[in-house]
Amino acid sequence: MAPSPTPLLLQTSSFPTAATTTATATTATAARPPPTLDIFPAWPMRSLHAPKECSNVTADSTDDSESSSKNNSNHSSDQLGAAANMASQFEQASPQQQLQHKNMATSSTPRTGKALDPKVIRRLAQNREAARKSRLRKKAYIQQLESCKLKLSQMEQDMQRARSQGLFLGGAPGANTSSGAAMFDVEYARWLDDHSRRLAELNGALHAHLADGDLRAIVDDALTHHDELFQLKAMAAKSDVFHLITGVWTTPAERCFLWMGGFRPSDLLKTLLPQLDPLTEQQVVSICNLQQSSQQAEEALSQGLEQLHQSLADTMSGGSLIDEANMSFMSQMALALSKLANLEGFVIQADNLRQQTLHQMHRILTVRQAARCFLAIGEYHNRLRALSSLWASRPREILVNDEGNCEEISIAAQPSQSQFSSF
């Protein structure tokens, strides 16, 4: 009887199955470290890459995957807790510290996170300083423009006040005024404002009984201010001498006492003498000699001006005044223009006489007497200007009464004229 064949035993360990291969891959995946770039993931990366459960996976592979998932979830939860803790600490920090950190980050380090070079930091500081200075210059420029605008409006107000006080001709004020004359009017209005301020300072110093040295400085400043006026008048005489000699730059009351574009030195001395008492005998003699020499110079200038007027009238009346075909008309005009040029010299000489008179009075008088002298001169002209303002601002009732009085005078004068009609 033939022996039965021995059954072949399959060794499963020698030939791996699909289940064994899958379990091995899962274990290798679980043991692999996470990618370098995803250090702080929002959720565990192994849960994303975990393979789906298969029916043929053994119990050991399932347990290994579950344990690795738990470890990854615990690790990610720890990381999330640390991040939340850091965020809460940053929120609890004071706003000032946050601002300081922000400034340090923006000023000392760029966005790349690298520390800046000291030269770059110094250049940035220089740029900030230059920007600050530029803003300051812009602010100063704007303030300068505003101040110039205020000065311009002040000059316009001065011009209007000068016109209202009679500094310009009536009818069309300033219509026939040259540019040099208009500039002189503006400068003269400014000079008057400065003169009022200096007189107030001089008056306060005189009543405060300052020392002679301090008072002398203020008196010398007032004399220098008068010299500036004579310089302005000399420039105006070269541009428009008629503007000065007619006195349209002064008030109506001042024009009554005008002589060659200004005051008479002899009349001014007569006004000042009662205000300077007590005077020594030597001072009285010196002032009388100055007054006499001033009168002689005034007479000489007045005679020269009268001769100029007569010569100018003879030149203009030469030839025929009726015949329009007179060809010597232009030659006569040229001769008259050459004679009018001498008018500027008379005005400048008269101003020199006035200036020398003031300087001589400054030498003769003491410091306190000179202070009272300049105060008296300023107050005298201020009263004349005030008189002109009062005359220009009279109420209309007074004007109507004046017109009525004039009519009564004319009516009363008519019978007397009719009585002598036969003669």
Automatic annotation (TrEMBL):
GO terms for cellular component: nucleus. Residues 181-394 form the DOG1 domain. GO terms for biological process: DNA-templated transcription. Residues 16-31, 68-78 have a biased composition (Low complexity). Pfam families: bZIP_1, DOG1. Residues 117-161 form the BZIP domain. The keyword Translocase does not apply. SUPFAM superfamilies: Leucine zipper domain. It is found in: Nucleus. Residues 86-111 have a biased composition (Polar residues). Residues 1-120 are annotated as: Disordered. InterPro entries: bZIP, bZIP_sf, TGA_domain. Keywords: Coiled coil, DNA-binding, Nucleus, Transcription, Transcription regulation. Residues 138-165 form a coiled coil. GO terms for molecular function: DNA-binding transcription factor activity; sequence-specific DNA binding. It comes from the Eukaryota. Belongs to the bZIP family. PANTHER family: TRANSCRIPTION FACTOR TGA9, TRANSCRIPTION FACTOR TGAL4. This is Uncharacterized protein. It comes from Miscanthus lutarioriparius.
